[in-house]
């Protein structure tokens, strides 16, 4: 016999390891009387039935993640076995940890930690010792097939969380070339009803429920998915970054309503360095207290070059991937750490988060279903960034849902659609802007609102952030040049600055914006005189501040009054 052939993976179903040979030698060295030859074991030792090592590939990692997603981590420690799982699903935490350790993967320990952290029972101080207690030489040491068996049990008995069909399909396609793997495979579960009759019970309250809790633009509620569309270069990414910043600060953005909360941004076209530059520049003028809020309440993931798909194509049909569940886990963990409700989960941009054809209704419908699943599980607003078709460049007139590239299912299946466009020639004439300066302005239009009023617009002026080499967006109120000639030149720029930072700007701060390099584009003397005139004419008012208001707005103790618009509360 050529023993070398035994270790060749293609020569036999199982790989013979050094540990197996040592165990066999130990058995053969025992006296015959010590062996119960008349009673063959009903279950072979785990070390002999262990799976061949799984390669640490994206596909295999996803299969393990899929199994973990089915098993609740809220379990007792146990002794490292799952023998009683069918009748007593309690004591298996250590078994799962050991099963992951058996893989000998670089990411194995991190998978174990992330899974364990989902339970309040998790003790980080004891984890390392439990992880290191795994001993592959023991005859009853658990293997990865046991995790698959555990996941199967949870699925059949409906003990685990909601499972996407694609994950089940992927699990059922596991290799069946090993006894333990065959036992641990996910089997076809009987088809269960989606609803019970009680799910359709109709409740008729005696009085109207509380008003909707709008997260954004007085039209978008929690737990919904919306679309943001626009041509390249319209500052879509900058817009959603600033939305997240204002949400973290608990401040509306000019006249754009934004709910206080935390945010997660998955930036598919940004590097880590660019993320630092962009957020650093956008937060350059914030106070230390405001900067702390931003860092606590925003997580932005630079994801350039990463596989971000939440859908995949299997056998020609679109199905979810496990990344949706990963987003949910990250979101819920961030909510716990930040201590505040989630406002936004931003996915930038569409093509990076889906497989299939963005013009195919079935592919797009599957994507929007997954987005709705994420939104419902997190109660955040899921914002999907989309590009506009190039034909929009020559368009004049109001924005509409046709400015979203791809199938109409994008807008049909989401609860709101917003479009960002550069000021057009007809709009420049209306607002008294020269043709050369119209490209400095962009407009956000609410073109579809299932739970509010569509048609609202918000204008922003593009500005450069000194020293940071990035652009930002400043809210700007637009007025018809014919109807409101007084809102022009320096007066308008001052009013716009006050409008974009309501209740926080002082005379001194506005004067700091003067000079050749200042955003007001006028001398300090001109700025001071114009401020005085606007106050005299009632276009601006001086608002005295209380101690509480200064603290709320993160203003220093020496600020006694601020400038505001007359209509501000």
Helix content: 25-40%
DSSP E strands, number:
15
Q: Any idea of the CATH class of the largest domain?
A: Alpha Beta
**How much strand content do the residues show?**
5-15%
Secondary-structure blueprint of this entry?
Layout: H1 18-29, H2 46-49, H3 58-70, H4 93-101, H5 108-116, H6 124-132, H7 144-156, H8 165-172, H9 179-184, E1 214-216, E2 220-221, E3 225-230, H10 236-249, E4 262-267, H11 272-282, H12 288-297, E5 298-302, E6 311-314, E7 317-320, H13 323-338, E8 342-348, H14 361-378, E9 381-387, H15 409-412, E10 416-422, H16 425-430, E11 441-449, E12 457-465, E13 470-475, H17 489-500, H18 507-511, H19 524-536, E14 541-544, H20 547-552, E15 561-564
Parallel strand pairs: 3-9, 3-10, 4-5, 4-8, 8-9
Antiparallel strand pairs: 1-2, 6-7, 10-11, 11-12, 12-13, 14-15
Helix pairs in contact: 3-7, 4-5, 4-7, 10-12, 13-14
């Amino acid at each position: 016999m050529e023993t070398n052939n035994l270790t060749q993976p293609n020569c036999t179903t199982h790989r013979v390891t050094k540990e197996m040979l040592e165990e066999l030698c130990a058995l053969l060295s025992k006296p015959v009387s010590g062996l119960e030859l008349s009673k063959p074991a009903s279950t072979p030792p785990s070390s002999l039935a262990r799976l061949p090592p799984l390669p640490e590939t994206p596909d295999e990692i996803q299969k393990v993640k899929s199994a973990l997603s089915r098993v609740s981590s809220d379990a007792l420690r146990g002794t490292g076995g799952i023998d009683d799982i069918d009748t007593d699903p309690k004591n298996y935490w250590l078994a799962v940890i050991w099963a992951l350790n058996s893989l000998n993967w670089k990411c194995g320990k991190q998978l174990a930690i992330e899974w364990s952290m989902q339970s309040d029972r998790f003790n980080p101080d004891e984890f390392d010792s439990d992880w290191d207690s795994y001993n592959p030489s023991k005859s009853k040491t658990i293997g990865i097939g046991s995790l698959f068996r555990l996941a199967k049990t949870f699925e059949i008995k409906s003990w685990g969380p909601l499972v996407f069909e694609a994950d089940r399909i992927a699990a059922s396609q596991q290799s069946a070339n090993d006894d333990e793997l065959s036992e641990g495979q996910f089997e076809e579960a009987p088809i269960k009803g989606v609803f019970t009759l009680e799910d359709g019970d109709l409740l008729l309250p005696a009085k109207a429920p509380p008003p909707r809790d709008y997260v954004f633009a007085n039209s978008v509620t929690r737990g919904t998915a919306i679309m943001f569309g626009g041509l390249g270069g319209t500052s879509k990414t900058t817009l959603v970054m600033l939305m997240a910043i204002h949400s973290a600060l608990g401040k509306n953005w000019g006249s754009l309503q934004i709910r206080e909360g935390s945010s997660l941004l998955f930036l598919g076209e940004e590097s880590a360095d660019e993320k630092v530059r962009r957020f650093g520049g956008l937060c350059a003028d914030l106070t230390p207290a405001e900067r702390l809020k931003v860092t606590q309440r925003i997580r932005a993931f630079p994801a350039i070059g990463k596989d971000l798909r939440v859908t995949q194509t299997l056998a020609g049909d679109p199905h979810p991937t496990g990344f949706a569940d990963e987003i949910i886990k990250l979101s819920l963990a961030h909510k716990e750490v930040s201590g505040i409700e989630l406002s936004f989960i931003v996915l930038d941009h569409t093509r990076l988060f889906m497989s299939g054809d963005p013009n195919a209704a079935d592919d797009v419908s599957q994507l929007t279903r997954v987005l709705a699943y994420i939104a419902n599980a997190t109660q955040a607003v899921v914002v999907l960034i989309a590009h506009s078709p190039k034909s929009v460049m020559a368009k004049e007139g109001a924005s509409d849902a046709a400015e979203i590239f791809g199938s109409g299912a994008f807008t049909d299946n989401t609860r709101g659609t917003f479009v960002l466009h550069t000021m057009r020639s007809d709009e420049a004439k209306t607002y008294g802007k020269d043709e050369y300066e119209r490209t400095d302005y962009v407009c956000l239009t609410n073109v579809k609102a299932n739970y509010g009023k569509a048609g609202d617009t918000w204008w922003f002026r593009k500005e450069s952030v000194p020293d940071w080499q990035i652009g930002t967006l400043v809210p700007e109120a637009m007025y018809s040049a014919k109807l409101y000639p007084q809102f022009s030149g320096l007066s308008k720029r001052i009013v716009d600055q006050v409008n974009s930072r309501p209740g926080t700007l002082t005379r001194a701060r506005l004067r700091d914006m003067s000079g050749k390099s200042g955003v007001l584009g006028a001398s300090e003397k001109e700025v001071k005189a114009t401020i005085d005139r606007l106050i005299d004419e009632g276009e601006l008012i001086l608002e005295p501040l209380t101690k509480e208001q200064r603290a709320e707005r993160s203003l220093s103790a020496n600020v006694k009054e601020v400038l505001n618009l007359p209509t501000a509360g």
